[in-house]
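Board work, copied verbatim: Helix-turn-helix protein
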Amino acid sequence: MVGREFGNGVRKIIERTGLTQRRIAELLGWQEAKISDLLAGKGGVSEMEVRELLAFCQATVEERSHLIALFLESGEKGWLQFPEDGVPDQVRTFIEHEKSAKKIIAWSPTLVPGVLQIPEYAYVVTAASPVIEAADVPTVAAARSARAKILDGSRQFVFYVHEFALRLQVGGVEVWREQLAHLLRVSVRSYISIRIIPASAGIHAGTSGGFYVMEFAKFPTVVYLETLNRCLFLDDADTVEVYETTLKKLAAVASDEEQSRAVIDNILEGN
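↓ predict structure ↓
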């Protein structure tokens, strides 16, 4: 994940020169594949070579400092970010990678998943956060709601949601009912699967907390976790396997899509 962020940063600096990757490689005496691997976050270059490339492209001191720090950190298994605004799901990195994922699988035990929240629901959730100042709530809530734009047929979505999350009346009865109705509306889209973990399932594999698993066309799968004011991205194979196993176990106890719609209907009807 850090390697990807590093590659994106270097790509922007290279584009700013107006030169092609091939031409830059020729001028540096490199194989073009070396730059391609670097931009893809695959490594294969030394710190000295990174500094040489950044100097050639006339990166600023601040840019070089930031990118070298990312390069040195790219061998770590996880990446812990400390967002200045204290809003984990508004971190630029998460939003950018959420947009570029080909498949997103989310497990949400306590609330409707963020990308499925209607604006009124998202506003109440934002206002309830202990780390967001009251003056910032409208802006942050609007940013959260804007994430719904990724709900299109260019990618696949699977949402596992606990029944308790559906029964939690967020924002009063009217908002809560509209939120459930919204889930029913989007659940019929061919690229969205909503599966409910029924309360009758009892203890299950997902009790440790919610998470996202994002799959990409050209990059390794990433697991995303968040707390009140921290975000953690993990892409090492062992960790990803743990969360993929958790998803398989959730799938084994979850209601199928039709049954899940029936659960939502029953809640709306007061059952």
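The CA atoms of residues 204 and 250 lie 7 Å apart.
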